[in-house]
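User: Can you predict the 3D structure for this chain?
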Amino acid sequence: MKNIIYCGSGNSSKLIDQINQKDFVICGANNAWRLFEEFDFWIHSGDFPRENRPEKQNFKTEISYAEYKETSKRFCDSLGIKTPSPQHYVGYTIFFLGLHWIMTELKPKRIGLLGFDHDYNPEKVKKWREGGQPNPQNQYLKGDESIKKWGENFFDGMKQDSFYGQGTPDPLRLGEDHLRGKFKQLIENSKRLGIEIVNLSPVTTGINPMPKVSIEDFR
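Assistant: Here is the predicted structure, written as structure tokens:
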């Protein structure tokens, strides 16, 4: 198995153009499909909006909720972890669920992360929280309003913290302390599996505590 690069929606994912993608297995979460002409695995959430899906398939294999749901259980079973909800144990965001699918099903030696710094624009976070943390579950769209149009209006004039447009900081619905705890747990469990996970992003802010490796040095 080649080393894996796992891309999210953060701005640092645009650095993927600096490497020869054929040297790696490329996994992309949610909107990361926009970065590529072709890549290996597209991992997306169960409620990923249809309007944001690629019009033409540019990935080899699609990994949906049904698959990584089952993988979460296999991951916990493999480490002897007893939990009533494996998905919540690994971390109920597409980043954690997708990453645990990669570790369990692909079994790489190294995983490099791009676009998963969790470095959300504080101005956007403040407005999002004050607005009731709008997301698909609380049906924040009105009528036939598109997600793109809603984002442009809601976050108008604010600096983007993702490459594809005005997304919400939805993982923060769980709280920063919760996310930090899941990252710590991830580090401990990945060591038990003998898998090295590094952050290829040069971003110095955010929640992601994984050790840094420059994208030029990732082999």
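Residues 127 and 169 are 11 Å apart (CA to CA). The chain is about 30% helix and 15% strand.
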